[in-house]
Amino acid sequence: MHALWVWAHPHTSSLNGHLREAGITALRENGWSVDEVDLYREGFDPLLVETGEEDVRRHQERLREADLVVMQFPLWWYSVPAVLKGWIDRVFESGFAYDVPDPETGKPLKYGKGGLVGKRALTIVTAGDRADSLGPRGISGHIEDVLWPLLHGTFWYTGMDPLRPHLITETGDVDTDVLAQLETDLAVRLKGVTDEPRIEYLPMTDDHYDHTIKLHPSVAPGKEDLSAHRSDG
């Protein structure tokens, strides 16, 4: 089992830094090999100007080899840090992660299929706000809705199995005891990462969507929020 751990935080001594170290250690203790992409320390250029550049090819090879992709980042303005967005923009290229043709129909594979099918994808997210603010009725929206562009629009779109986000909140109130518990919780989560169920997004099939890629009226009738696109919603 091989994991690619993509980390986007400017400070190694931060809470994120402690969790990264604990998480990678936990995976290795459970038999995983781990390749770490430290976007800040590697000086990754996030600006998409040209496709097919040499540094992108190297990152695509690292991604191709992974059974598990972990993206760890602080939640900044309800999204990922710019350097991580840039990594996705540049590395998830057409023909590699998406716009991969179905060998039978020639149509591009997407939403449950694609160039990264068979990989599991886990986000580890830190936020300064309280847990309930990112819950089902929280003012910020449920974390799975906040991260919809990443979970559904990137992971699921390219064929990966998205897992529910591992969210750490109230990061300004973490003392030594809380940190120890957070590290333990993360280790437990990672120990079962191959067995936990994915988020059950609907595949883009004629059974679910019409030719405009809108849900049929018979699918999740009456629902107009994002949960309509989940079989477990």
From TrEMBL:
Residue span(s) of domain Flavodoxin-like fold: 1-181
UniProt GO cellular component terms: cytosol
Organism domain of life: Bacteria
UniProt entry keywords in alphabetical sequence: Oxidoreductase
Record GO terms (molecular function): NAD(P)H dehydrogenase (quinone) activity
Pfam (any one): Flavodoxin_2
The family this protein is said to belong to: Belongs to the NAD(P)H dehydrogenase (quinone) family.
Protein name: NAD(P)H dehydrogenase (Quinone)
Organism: Nocardioides albertanoniae
